[in-house]
Amino acid sequence: MTGRLRHIAGFLAAIAFACGGAAMAASRDDVVITVNRVIYPGQIVPADAVIETHLRKPLRDGLVVIRDAEDLVGMVAAKTILPKRLIAPNAVREAFAIEAGDMTTVYYRHGALTIAMDAVALQSAGFGDPIRIRNTQSGRTISGIVMPDGSVAVESR
């Protein structure tokens, strides 16, 4: 008889664990990430402005909002973000590595040959993105790729 009771107790424990996990998952469905103050376009979202907000009603099907603080902190606002309002993923973007108008160093490498020059960014771009830049000495516009150190690499055609 004790073997059967253990079997039943184990089965009930497994059911309770499964229901508890489902309840925890359901409780996270009503939580979204919002901010506690207005964040204007171009501003970086600070960690102290991010809060969890519990929804009173479930979201409509197909509505995508930010649910994780890591997806928001340190990002740049692409649109005005209002306090206690749902935040769509397209309302924020990664910070640019090079902003339009910034001075940057451009490198051309071919084998052992390396040429470096100063240039002005004509547009903003993130790491690994293509960017148009203007040589400060010749005034020529060239294109390159933004490197992780903030410089630009160009290739021969």
In short:
By secondary structure, the protein is α+β, with helices and mostly antiparallel strands. The chain has one helix and nine strands.
Structure characterization notes:
By secondary structure, this protein is α+β, with helices and mostly antiparallel strands. The chain folds into two domains: 2-93, Type Iii Antifreeze Protein Isoform Hplc 12 (Alpha-Beta Complex), CATH 3.90.1210.10; 103-154, Roll (SH3 type barrels). It is built from one helix and nine strands. The strands form three sheets. Strands 5-6-7-8-9 form a five-stranded mixed barrel. The protein has a two-stranded antiparallel sheet with strand order 1-2. A hairpin with a 5-residue loop joins strand 8 and strand 9 (152-154). The longest helix is centred in the N-terminal third of the chain and has 28 residues, at 2-29. It starts with a helix and ends with a strand.
Pick out its properties.
157 residues, alpha+beta, SH3 type barrels, 18% helix
